[in-house]
Amino acid sequence: MRVWHPCGQTPVIPVSPQRTSTHFYAALNLQTGSEIVMRSAVMNAQATILFLLMLLAAYPTQPILLLWDRATWHRSKLITAFLQQHPRIEILWFPPASPDLNPQEHVWKATREAISHNHLMPKLDHLADAFEAHLATTRFPCSLLDLHHYSYLCMMFK
Question: What CATH number should be reported for the domain holding residue 54?
Fold first, then answer.
């Protein structure tokens, strides 16, 4: 990432000796541009089920079409059993190696640019708080539906 820095001065970037990390689960509502977000210490089947429960609670009556990447834990026995018990969630798999088709990848990029690029946050938890807040409060435009004339189809079937 390119950064501005005074000429002739070598940038000094403090590095924490800790190996802490945090992860986020998020889902983009393609109609509204809003996000449902959950921070997690790990990314595995159990955490994924917690996130799916959040989605079910956020949309208590609607069917949910979830466009999903091919993370290994998405195909675990726990997830398969959960999805069988919750038929309101339908999965549409993205083709392998196609992050450009995934609208959530564009959200991650926009949020990283807004929160972490050319900003210094010395504590991971402060950075994670800002990242989560940005996801929860920003409306993200999604051109995927426009590319397939979704708004036109919605008008026709109203």
Answer: 3.30.420.10
Contact criterion met (CB below 8 Å) for 104 and 26: yes
- The total domain count for the chain is 1
Question: Could you report the per-residue pLDDT of 19-47, keeping only the tens digit for each?
Answer: 678 999 999 998 888 999 999 999 999 99
Q: What is the pTM of this model?
A: 0.78
Kindly state whether residue 64 falls inside one of the protein's structural domains.
Answer: yes
> What is the C-alpha separation between 66 and 1, in angstroms, rounded?
32
> 48: domain range?
23-156
144 pLDDT more than 80: no
Q: Is residue 14 part of a domain?
A: no
Tokens 């539906």 -> residue: 145
The reply to whether 62 falls in a domain is yes
